[in-house]
Amino acid sequence: MAYLKSLTLAEVLDARGDPTVGAYVTTDQGLRAAAFAPSGRSTGRHEAVEVRDGDEEWYGGRGVRRHLARVARDVAEALEGLPLDIARIDEILRRLDGAGAKPHLGANVTSAVSLAVAKAAALSHNVPLYQYLNPLARTLPVPQMNLINGGRHAFNETPIQEFLVLPLGAPSVQAALEWTMRVYRALSEIVRQRYGQHALNPGDEGGLTPDVPTVQIGLDLMSRAVEQCGLSDGMRFGLDMAATHLYEPSTQRYHIDRPYSRDELFDLYAEVAAQRRVISIEDPVQEDDLSGLALLTRRLDIQLVGDDLFVTSPVRVREAIRQKAGNALLWKFNQIGTLSEAWAAAELAKRHGYEIVVSERSGETEDAAIADLAVALGASQIKTGAPVRGERTAKYNRLLEIERELGSQAQHAGEALMGRYG
Ligand code: PGA
Ligand code: ZN
User: Fold this and answer.
1) Which of 32, 47, 256, 419 has its CA 20 to 30 A from that of 220?
2) Contacts of 255 (CB under 8 A, 6+ apart)
3) What are 87-112's pLDDT values in tens digits?
């Protein structure tokens, strides 16, 4: 097995221009791998933490240079000279930090290092990352494309964070991208006519940014675009409610166009599931309401995805399984901080019939590794923004490359999803 010869940590920028962590690894064979930690804005309370320097002037106190100056040497000394064994290195990172939420090293540091080590290991075997992690990987995920951005991801008056299209009927990644790009163009024209061209400015995940006060209006806009393209048969819709950020604990109400009780919110979900081809809702309730999620899971026969609710944590996923809450895991490895822990969460979820939706963060970088990770995990879906902007298209373009590499061996998750939820 190859060895980790050197590890360098450095401040790099994400697509919002905020600082994040880059990890650079060299191996004893002279190979080099780099990985960047993405960064969330609509973060959950139970996530592992990104450590930043509040007292630093750089980037309004969001820099990571001082933090790296404090921890980089310890991390490098602990890892240099070790075999490129992901599980072992992740275990050392966990022990070095000493706490589950990674408050000392920061999940931004541990995520970048963990991924860089995995990339270096794959390089040393001279195979692509997805193949290194899973030699039997064949399934390509369906993209969940975020076409209208709101909430914390856009400067508009749209309370719902994400309106998504799922091209379940597309026979390939190539076709899925083509379909969604056509819908994106049609939607852009509809939005331009109704809201003016400022609403075409992209949000953090590349989606359009009209002021959409209700769930129904957003879905109407997307339905019109899909119909215009003649793609209604193969397209379904999804929502990321990011309900934690709509929730007012003092009144126990969710604020959209008006305050909703949980029961009213569930009635709304039932309506859009029955009448508007919504087959997936992410974080439909606030992050601590697993029992509410369980209630909704009994009521609706659609995909219910836990993001802030599950935070890619084996512990929280186990509890969700126990309560029969939700049926899909949003998988963001920096929510937990190491690939090994995130892997364990996915395996556990899969064993209990949960779908896996590998996801970007709103603050992405050009690092495209989640495309490989999605294929390695056999995830049925990947959520990585609209089909525009380099930090988003990097992932889609990598999926296209993997699709070409797999050739006739490639399988597609869309058909099974259509059968289950379509
Ligand atoms: P975040 O949001 O990356 O800003 O946390 C993404 C999501 O909620 O899915
Ligand atoms: Zn989410």
Assistant:
1) 419
2) 159, 246, 247, 248
3) 999 999 999 999 999 999 999 999 99
CATH 3.20.20.120 domain position(s) in the chain? 133-421
Active-site choice (50, 162, 205, 282): 205
Strands (E), 84-221: 139-140, 142-143, 145-149, 162-166
The pair of structure tokens assigned to 97 is 């930090």
The whole-model pTM stands at 0.98
Known catalytic residue at 360: no
Q: Residues 102, 119, 332, 383: which is the catalytic one?
A: 332
Ion ligand 2 residue ranges (Cβ < 5 Å)? 240, 282, 307
Tens of pLDDT, residues 358-370: 999 999 999 999 9
**Contact 307 CB / ligand 1 (< 6 Å):** yes
The DSSP secondary-structure symbol of 371 reads H
244 in contact with ligand 1, CB cutoff 6 A: no
For ligand 1, is residue 146 a contact (CB within 6 Å)? Answer: no
Q: What b/e readout covers 42-76, taking b as 16+ CB neighbours within 10 angstroms?
A: bbbebbbbbbbbeebeebeebbbbebbeebbeebb
Closest C-alpha among 393, 347, 372 to residue 118: 372
Cα–Cα dist 204/155, whole Å: 9
Q: Of the ligands numbered here, which is closest to the C-alpha atom of 240?
A: 2
Q: What one-character DSSP code corresponds to residue 32? A: E
- The yes or no reply on domain 133-421 and CATH 3.20.20.120 is yes
Which residues, listed in sequence order, are joined to residue 5 by a DSSP beta bridge? none
